[in-house]
Amino acid sequence: MAQKLIEIKKKLEVSLYDNSKPWTPILAIAEQKTGIERLYLALGAAVLVGLWLVFGYFAQLVCNTLGFLYPAYVSIKAIESKSKDDDTKWLTYWVVFSLFSVTEYFVDIIVRWFPLYWLVKCIFMVWLMFPGDLNGSIILYRRIIKPYFLKHEGNIDGAINKVKDSATKILDKAE
User: Fold this and answer.
1) What tens digit of pLDDT does each residue of 14-51 get?
2) How many CB atoms lie within 10 A of CB 65?
3) DSSP assignment of 8-35, as one string?
4) Nearest-5° angle of CA 56, CA 62, CA 65?
5) What does the DSSP 8-state code read for residue 133?
6) By CB atoms within 10 Å of each CB, which of 63, 81, 84, 149 scores lowest?
7) Is 59 in contact with 108 (CB distance < 8 Å)?
8) How many whole angstroms separate alpha carbon 144 and alpha carbon 159?
9) Where does 81-135 have alpha helices with state H?
């Protein structure tokens, strides 16, 4: 466990100094002005956001912004890059995000009573976009979504075709 935490810390430090990341210039300026290492600045910011998600107003907005804005930004960058790997990674994120959002809609009444819901959801969203082998969206896709989809692909395609045929018939009658 300690070894895994050391690996995560190293990856976090690499990310905090990666000039392709949007937070790097902000952390560089904050580090220069305060004299505090950017690792500690980032961890402090994470703690503040965590406290905000537990006790602050607009926790839902903060959580959903974190789960949407950064992934949208890097998805656009992935689309514009020549590499296919980053496209796949972020497309996988959006598939998992979408399924989670639909599921959340149906259990919303129950989970909102859970006092740490927005904090837990935010941690979950960060895990979904986590780099490397610990990427939650890839893990969930490979272990749950893909096997389920492959098992039921024919039924899903059949249902989609029925809806398409029904819509076509309705539109033909409307003409």
Assistant:
1) 888 888 777 888 888 998 999 999 899 999 998 988 88
2) 12
3) HHHHHHHHHT-TTSTTHHHHHHHHHHH-
4) 175
5) G
6) 84
7) no
8) 21
9) 85-111, 117-128
Q: Model-level pTM?
A: 0.76
Which amino acid makes up residue 111?
A: V
* Cβ contacts of 15 within 8 Å, gap of 6 or more: 21, 131
Neighbouring C-beta atoms of residue 133, cutoff 10 Å: 8
- Residue 96 — pLDDT band, cuts 50, 70, 90? very high
37: left (phi over 0), alpha (psi -120 to 50) or beta: beta
- d(C-alpha 152, C-alpha 158), whole Å: 10
> Token digits for 153?
């692909």
Q: How far is residue 15's CA from residue 125's CA, in Å, rounded to a whole number?
A: 17
- 142-171 pLDDT, tens digit per residue, is 999 999 999 999 999 999 999 998 888 888
116 band by pLDDT with thresholds 50, 70 and 90:
confident
- For the chain, count helices (H), then strands (E): 8, 0
Contact residues for 152 (Cβ-Cβ < 8 A; gap 6+) = none
Q: Which residues of 11-23 are buried (b: 16+ CB within 10 A; e: fewer)?
A: ebeeebeeeeeeb
User: Cβ–Cβ contacts within 10 Å for residue 127, how many?
Assistant: 14
CA distance 55 to 115: 9
